[in-house]
């Protein structure tokens, strides 16, 4: 799943499907699975997608699902929060909230902040 999200040149439909699958898997994930989950690769891929690093290919769905996956990742594996924060999570969330383009994305960003604050 993480490989599909990180893949360069993936079609939007395939990317959205991979992000949905990742979100679903993370929503049922337990902390003990953290040893098997590629946190570093996931953090890099999700931050790139959530930050709109793909230019015009970054659709609202891709951005929303990426931020949602980050939310689930921070909730399921508290140790992954440090990894995502090291990859620039806080500035990215702040920039999304300072220039709200998609309300759903802004609401999801607030949920990520909430998960981080519990840590």
TrEMBL record:
Keywords: Transferase. GO terms for biological process: proteasome-mediated ubiquitin-dependent protein catabolic process; protein polyubiquitination. InterPro entries: ARM-like (IPR011989), HECTD1/TRIP12-like (IPR045322), TPR_TRIP12_N (IPR057948). Pfam families: TPR_TRIP12_N. One of its GO terms (molecular function) is ubiquitin protein ligase activity. Residues 8-117 form the E3 ubiquitin-protein ligase TRIP12-like TPR repeats domain. This is E3 ubiquitin-protein ligase TRIP12-like TPR repeats domain-containing protein. It comes from Dichanthelium oligosanthes.
